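Anyone able to model this chain together with adenosine-5'-triphosphate?
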Amino acid sequence: MPRHASPSPETTGTHPTESPGAVVDPTGAPAAAGDALHSPGPVGDAIVTARDLVKVYGAGSTAVHALRGVDVDFARGALTAIMGPSGSGKSTLMHCLAGLDTATSGTVTVDGQRVSDMSQRQLTALRRTHIGFVFQAYNLVPTLTAAENITLPMDIARAGVDRERFDAVVDAVDLRDRLDHRPSELSGGQQQRVAVARALVARPAVVFADEPTGNLDSRSAGDLLEYLRRSVDDLGQTMVMVTHDPRSAAFADRVLFLADGRIVGELEQPTQTGILDALGELTPETER
Ligand SMILES: Nc1ncnc2c1ncn2[C@@H]1O[C@H](COP(=O)(O)OP(=O)(O)OP(=O)(O)O)[C@@H](O)[C@H]1O
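re: yes, here you go
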């Protein structure tokens, strides 16, 4: 769902800060910003879904209820941000959606495949073929060039590299003139762009990004977010990004808010101001 025809200045994200995104109510009608957060409604053409997802770490009196029955859909070809206070369950949700962790109960479906029923072996195959990952640390191999790092997962899997896709991805993240460089010859932002290209090149159904700009300075972070946005708009890539940063989240089509293991609301077409207002509603005054 391309909607950012021309990226706006990096300092404000792609949405104007002056007009907050609307908080969506359960009937689907946009409500005025500042209203209480409401549960998200259904999403058409969802590529990732979770139903009544529960994750409990430990047992008995020390049990931690990280997810308390999450129902959520992620739309195909959209960039969705997940936000919420520390400990609200963002990483746990992402790990369960991506097959990196197993939920205690509930179901996860990725691209028509029921992740929650899979064996470890099937999960490994799913992650390799259907899911791309971008983490805070770039995790590049220092002895390989940018091009070799991008195709490494496919080389390991002995899968042929689709040159057309490779070119489209390299252009989307603007790495054409850096392909022969090793990571030590690249800036942090360029290294993360290599990591993004590596995540995208196998045409995954969905890319999960965990604080992808966490190691970058403000300018490089803004650039990276533009490239992530372009990957969604130009390549139709579905992307889910966990972030603490309202500026990063403002690049998304939709922001989901977690609190205490539950999805407590969402913003569509979010702005930084709308996100800050929503976070203010969720975060106890003592933690602000
Ligand atoms: N392996 C684990 N064992 C026990 N408890 C865990 C484990 N992983 C996470 N938790 C707990 O589950 C809850 C949710 O953690 P999670 O990391 O998903 O939150 P988060 O929203 O990603 O937090 P942050 O923003 O600080 O990264 C927290 O109370 C956390 O302490």
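The domain at 75-103+117-282 is CATH 3.40.50.300 (Rossmann fold).
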